[in-house]
Prior knowledge:
Structural class: mainly beta
Order of helices and strands: EEEEEEEEEHEHEHEEE
Number of strands: 14
Oligomer: single chain
CATH architecture: 4-Layer Sandwich
Largest sheet: 8 strands, mixed
Shape: globular
CATH class: Alpha Beta
Radius of gyration: 16 Å
Mean pLDDT: 95
Strand order of the largest sheet: 6-7-8-9-10-11-14-12
Low-confidence stretches: none
Number of helices: 3
Distance between the termini: 17 Å
Amino acid sequence: xxxxxxxxxxxxxxxxxxxxxxxxxxxxxxxxxxxxxxxxxxxxxxxxxxxxxxxxxxxxxxxxxxxxxxxxxxxxxxxxxxxxxxxxxxxxxxxxxxxxxxxxxxxxxxxxxxxxxxxxxxxxxxxxxxxxxxxxxxxxxxxxxxxxxxxxxxxxxxxxxxxxxxxxxxxxxxxxxxxxxxxxxxxxxxxxxxxxxxxxxxxxxxxxxxxxx
Length: 213
């Protein structure tokens, strides 16, 4: 499995011939839009920064869209989506927006992408439905999503093997990554891409890996 970061909350996950993307960036977004083909596209929040399904419809690939809570299975990938709330990118008069937390099972590993989550208290259904987490993608940018302190608190409570901070590149408060790493205080690694196999998780316990765009 290879994980690359494309800014904001957008991560591409490739394994074999299959490509999965979390929160692809659309045209007209705060960030530059992405342009690659995906087989599965997961959208946590209906906002241009995270809902660019058209942008990952490319070449011969026509993505299977997952845009909300529920259970899905596609090409050997099992996905569960859990309803939560976000305060990111709200329209006029809007107090909150829907956000979907995704748990994805593939290659004998579980990836959990929290989306643009605002509350450090996970909904009960998500708490019950999410078991051992190998890789946790957690928003750290504040202003409608988790603050650095709340993100750290939640990430530690979920006990993942690896924590990947997001929502700091191109969106989120300035210096949110530095604030989060200072809050976590236990060191981190920076990588341009993360190549991961199940055996690589042995001995990992809340390791923070910053995947740079």
